[in-house]
From TrEMBL:
This is Uncharacterized protein.
């Protein structure tokens, strides 16, 4: 059978877009639950707690988690596309290794730029501009900032600019 990209039951890895769609539906469901509880509340003679507030809380949290998973997947996949920095620790694209991360969000200690996700742990995904080669000949494709940072530590290695044509 042909793979149906629109179906959650379809094979293969889900795309970030599919996860985003699922997140939107969980969000919508959470809102529907709130609306439904409001309607139930307005009916006299119904027992309380038919639809407790924890239901939509749980749905909202689930939507959040699905969204986080979509983010993670998107960043991992973006890093695998050729042309992206493959370093597996984040930097500030302006300042370098100056990131601070707390509660799944990161910011730069130098310039104050903020990211709504944990940028410290995961692929960098900035545009790859350099090829770093260590003394043993191992190579890694990196962005300008990672390249600069690695150059100081490339003992006997090389940092080559990738020609842009
Ligand atoms: Zn910065
Ligand atoms: Zn990088």
């Amino acid at each position: 059978m042909f793979e149906n990209a629109d179906s959650a039951a379809g094979g293969g890895e889900p795309t970030p877009a599919e996860l985003r769609d699922l997140q939107a539906r969980a969000d919508a469901l959470a809102r529907d639950v709130v609306a439904m509880r409001e309607r139930l509340r307005q009916q006299p003679g119904l027992p309380r707690g038919v639809l407790p507030g924890t239901v939509d809380d749980a749905l909202t949290r689930a939507a959040q988690r699905i969204g986080d998973a979509a983010d993670k997947l998107a960043r991992v996949r973006a890093a695998e596309w050729s042309g992206s920095c493959t370093a597996w620790w984040g930097i500030c694209p302006r300042c370098g290794p100056t990131l601070q991360t707390e509660d799944g969000r990161s910011w730069c200690r130098e310039c104050g730029t903020r990211w709504g996700y944990d940028r410290s742990h995961g692929p960098c995904t900035e545009r790859a501009t350099h090829l770093a080669m260590d003394a043993q000949g191992g190579t890694v494709v990196v962005c300008a900032v990672h390249g600069r940072h690695m150059q100081e530590r490339l003992d006997g290695g090389l940092l080559l600019a990738i020609p842009t044509s």
